[in-house]
Amino acid sequence: MAGIGDHIHVKKNTAGSSNELSFDVLDAARNDLDTKGRKAPRPQALQKPSKGDYHGVAEKATLSKPAKTEKRKAEGGRRVLPVVLAIVAGVLVVGGIAFLVTRFGPSYVHETQKFDEEFDAIVDNLIEIDAFMAKVDDVMEDPLSDEVKASSETLLKQIDTFKAAIEGLRADVAHSLESTYSEDKRQALQEVDSAAEARYSMLTAAGGAIKEASKVDAEVEAANKAWASVLEADRAARDATQRANMAYTEEETRAARDQTQDALDQFNSSLAEMQAIVDRHVGINLGNQMAYLNARVEALQHAVKTGDALLAMDRETAQAENDAYNEADARAAELAESLPPTVEDAIRSSYDETIAVYVAKYQSSRDQAISSDAYVRSYMNEARLVEGASKGTGN
Description:
Elements: H1 18-36, H2 66-74, H3 97-104, H4 106-139, H5 146-150, H6 152-178, H7 183-245, H8 250-280, H9 287-311, H10 315-337, H11 344-392
């Protein structure tokens, strides 16, 4: 019976072949990772929300102040969502009451005064909310900034507080609608409700973006750690392959087989870590990395079986398993050529895409707020004109 030395060379000497190529590429990746301190260039920044023409529900006098807007642009164009300015106190309440009593009677005047008081209170509450909305609008210019990440916990608590305030405001609108019968007044209330609902949606979108942004750095660190373990597993596999190619005795073959199993275990562990990252990020593009890991695991499984067959003096099985190893290893080598040095860019791009969805939702809701606010401002301007006209009659 032939001894183990007669079969030890069934496994081809693969120096300079596919497995060596993949190891060299991964070595370059590891060196690049070490050189860069595991930091990759940031992808292109997210597109900022459109600055639009947003003035809030009401502003004194003209309600629209292009001069100040142009001044802000000249100073750097920072303000995206200006804070709503205080509305004129007592709008619709004081002027022309005597005229209204004479024209429509005391019940109409009572309803009008009650509506005006409720409407003013509701809009005042919206003004207070908008002071915070201006801050959120700044946040949404760059949700991934270090400043936003550092204050994410506080911002999320504040968002919850103001969302609750908006819910209370909308309840007040609903209550006022129950006793308001004038079509124009009901429409004004409904537009205020629409403006409040839009702000609620804006805060929901901002909260989602902030939560995602707060995870980025920790997730990048975890991903880089997982990929570093892949590089270490690749090094272990290379050492095992070299040892197997130099094994001429049963003892050497057994040691090479065990070392190959250790490398396979490392790859399986790395594969599990990378799969966990993929599972946490739906749509993340790590297809090449996962394909490489699966090919490498498949190759090492065949390498272990080759060693087992050699130790069992089964030349035919050893040859078949060795051929399968070479095929899987060639696929791994080809995939390795296209692998980036780190997975950081893929992780950051995944978060950028997720946050971009929240930014789009925020902008869409913001556009709705602009539309509703414009209606409310128009209504309040017309109300002032009516009040002024009633005063001008001298009645």
